[in-house]
Amino acid sequence: MEHQETHLTSEMKADKLIAWIREYAEKFLNLQLADERRCIPPYVFMDWGNQGIFGLNVPEEYGGLGLSEKDYYRVIMQLGAIDMSLAMLVVIHTENGIGPILRFGSEKAKQELIPLMASGRYIGAVGVTEPTFGTNFFEMKSNARKEHDQWILNGVKRWNSANWATIINVFAIAKGDGLMERGMTGFTVLKSQPGVEMGPEALTIGARAIMQNGMTFKDVRIDNDYVLGAPYKGGDILESMLSHARISSSYILLGGMKRAMQKVMRFLKRRKMPGATLIDYPFIIEKLNDAASAIVAIEKLAGMVCAIDEKEQGLRSLLGELLKVAASEFGIKIIKQCMHMAGGRGYMENNDFGRLMRDSLASYYGEGANDGLLYLAGKDILYKT
């Protein structure tokens, strides 16, 4: 990583990084080509790693930028405005890869893995979803059994950005020696370990620049130092990880919505129609006002969720579910509306609206499909509040 100016505050670091991201995207990123090829160029990983983008949420003692939560989300929102696929890659790495190790990993795992992940030399991913379930974790089939000082992991996962990853946090149903020693457990696995096999790429509609593929684990041996938190208590760890990722996903969408609005406003101000430019038409003004109001409301809700203390995990998780659903539903609607307001230009691939539209659709399913999350949130409101 390039030399960090340690005297800078978190806010100053974020401001500097956001300015760098904007300039870098304009000069070096061909996002349409990355989308078409379903691949991010390797130099992007190196350049972003040198700037500390892969260590946004990592304390300086582990080689990261040590941004505050507020400043972390500011950077994520800017990445979402540049390209939602790239922003998803960073969030998968920081929230699903680094986050569980940083909050629940052993000190050995932290010292060994986090500095490499913060520099971008190791990319992180997660293994949760399986071929037989999505949001319903009670159907999880992956399993791990205790054998002396190790765990033996078996199972199949899907929809993971793991072909690019070195570190994968895998959740499975673990069994120990006693009758009460059973429950979901998180494990940190290296892709290079014997028994880890990568499956074929999933040809998703959106988020095409980041690879999604399946994973198979066949008698993978894991030492106790790479268990996340306490055995059989992985449900709380998974919920914490998902809660953070849902907030991040909302900021990605906020960036995408703002970008779509910016692009369509430029068009509407230039497009001359009988009597006035399009921006002056009352029904266009109404659509823009509705979209702007929704963006402000979602950003306010996101700020409220972030302000909830981590100790209030239940409330934070509940509101995070509702935030993710709202951001997704409004994000898809607003980006689609912007595409339509751009007329025929919005239908052209080189104007980015198509990519924004496709990428926004991924938010409906990521970190729990909206329909399932609404059911879970409703159940929590009825029985836990």
Structural class: alpha+beta
Strand residue content: 15-25%
Shape: globular
Number of helices: 11
**Uncertain segments:** none
Query: How far from one another are the termini?
Result: 46 Å
For the largest beta-sheet, the strand count, sense and barrel status come to: 8 strands, mixed
Radius of gyration: 21 Å
Instruction: Give the overall pLDDT as a whole number.
Output: 92
* Share of helix, binned: 40-55%
Secondary-structure element pattern, one letter each: HHHHHHEEEEEEEEHEEHHHH
**How many E-type strands?**
10
Structure overview:
The protein is built from eleven helices and ten strands. The protein has helices spanning about 10-30, 30-35, 40-50, 70-80, 85-105, 105-120, 235-270, 280-305, 315-340, 355-365, 370-385, and strands at about 125, 145, 150-160, 165-175, 180-190, 195-200, 215-225, 225-230, 270-275, 275. Strands 1, 2, 3, 4, 5, 6, 7 and 8 form an eight-stranded mixed β-sheet that branches. The chain has a two-stranded antiparallel sheet with strand order 9-10. Helix 5 runs antiparallel to helix 7, helix 7 packs antiparallel against helix 10 (about 355-365) and helix 9 runs antiparallel to helix 11 (about 370-385). The chain is globular and about 80 Å long.
